[in-house]
Amino acid sequence: MMVDVNISEEVLTRLRGRVAFLAQSGPSPRGSPERATGSVELSA
């Protein structure tokens, strides 16, 4: 159980790091539509 918990924590930290990196990079398919809608809402 302890080993599984440690692995899960490491995986979560890695996923969070990737999400933050993708959010900063921008060209990711998930981030681009969200920013596009956000820019449209701000402009409108």
Automatic annotation (TrEMBL):
Region Disordered: start-end pairs: 23-44
Keywords, comma-separated and alphabetical: Plasmid
Domain of life of the source: Bacteria
Protein name as catalogued: Uncharacterized protein
